[in-house]
Amino acid sequence: PVIHSLSASELEIVPFALVVVDQEGKIAAFLDRTDFTQDVQETRKALNLSPEATAVHRLAPGQFLIPGFVDTHNHAPQWAQRGLGQGMHILNWLDAITFPNEARFRDTEYARRVYASCVDGFLRQGVTTASYYGSVHGEATKILAELCLSKGQRALVGKCNMTRNAPEYYRDASVEESLRVTEECIAHIRSLDHPKFKSLVQPVLTPRFAISCDAELLQGLGSIARRNPDLPIQTHFNEAEQEMHATRALFPQFGGSEADLYAHYGLLGARSILAHCCHMSEHEMERLRELECGVAHCPTSNMTVGGGFMAAPVREFLRRGIKVGLGTDSGGGFSSSMLDAMRHAMIASYAREAMSQSQSQSEEGRRDKETLSIDEVFYLATLGGAQVCGLEDKVGNFAVGKEFDALIVGTRGAEQGIITMVEEEDSLRTVFDKFVMTGDDRNIVRVYVQGRLVKGEA
Ligand code: GUN
Ligand code: FE
């Protein structure tokens, strides 16, 4: 059984499927029950596969296959601080909790230990692709990229740029130094090589947000972006009132529009991943659409840290054709589970629905329904995220030609600690819904990236 998204509104559920993965980890064929005989011998012959070279894995009862999760916004150095500072406003939380914590990554041994745990922890939870912010430190960021590659996690990894509004012990020494270390990290990450995995890890430009960047730094990063048109860019965008006020005070010339600000410095385009986007004017919505930017929706952190306490208008993004994915945010918030992010996206959408109902006078005056369905949040966690990260040609679903990043989900096995309660008569649709709403990492039996098993028993 295979379940994947074809689009935001189309979930494909195939009860009997055969997915053929080649030596490079690419999907060579995806057949449903009507296209192949159950006889493996005949299938091999029909597909011209040699018997010696072909291993066959059959799923056990209660199991099904889904694409790996894509976490579009994740601060790796916040792995050890998850859950701390709940309810705080963003700038206070950065000063009190985050900067002292991230400063510890100056110590490369500490970085290696925490990042190893982080990458293992996310892979264990089915995150086959993550877009990571590193700390400000070049060496620790290179270690993070190396660990992603050696452990088999597809990743975007960026050295975080900060030259101001951060304590002296935790910021780049100068704009020149910030840019120099950034270019060094980009070159290092591009040079990484692995015997099994190809092009798994790539660099991403990571200005933390405008508040922490001098104008010359944003200019310099824009220049790197111009010279590297394929390089993705990530930053925080319209997260909370406190952050938006501070941004406006530092950059009054943009009249409070972060879209105009980042676009001015050449940092907005089809490769931009904008985290949060909670408060969006009509003008900014349109700018993101025109510029083909992607949104990393982080409902868990939006509702618990940062002071937004308001989640992004995801329905409106989808309606306008703006790319959207989900992010755990890791330290912002408390959960590193994409299943939680999916469920919180649903809850946040229900809250928006309630607000929109109470604000509108009449049925006709009401905006588009805000609520997100299970199918939609699953799309955001997989194919939507792949689009946001510029990886839709590689991952996100099981289209032929993509790479096999997949999870085998088990829904039975109390002895393995699985607590989803499925019953004999449940349809695959029902089993899937129960997994999304009540499952956890114990249901994620095996994790594959580029066709290789990276977590779970062979
Ligand atoms: N804005 C700037 N830095 C951060 C961060 O680390 N987390 C969140 N949630 N917002 C930010
Ligand atoms: Fe963040």
From TrEMBL:
It holds the Pfam family Amidohydro_1. Binds 1 zinc ion per subunit. One of its GO terms (molecular function) is guanine deaminase activity. Keywords: Hydrolase, Metal-binding, Zinc. GO terms for cellular component: cytosol. Residues 64-454 form the Amidohydrolase-related domain. Its EC number is 3.5.4.3. Pathway: Purine metabolism; guanine degradation; xanthine from guanine: step 1/1. It catalyses: guanine + H2O + H(+) = xanthine + NH4(+). SUPFAM superfamilies: Metallo-dependent hydrolases. Signal peptide: none annotated. The keyword Zinc-finger does not apply. Its cofactor is Zn(2+). GO terms for biological process: guanine catabolic process. Coiled coil: none annotated. Belongs to the metallo-dependent hydrolases superfamily. ATZ/TRZ family. Catalyzes the hydrolytic deamination of guanine, producing xanthine and ammonia. This is Guanine deaminase. It comes from Achaetomium macrosporum.
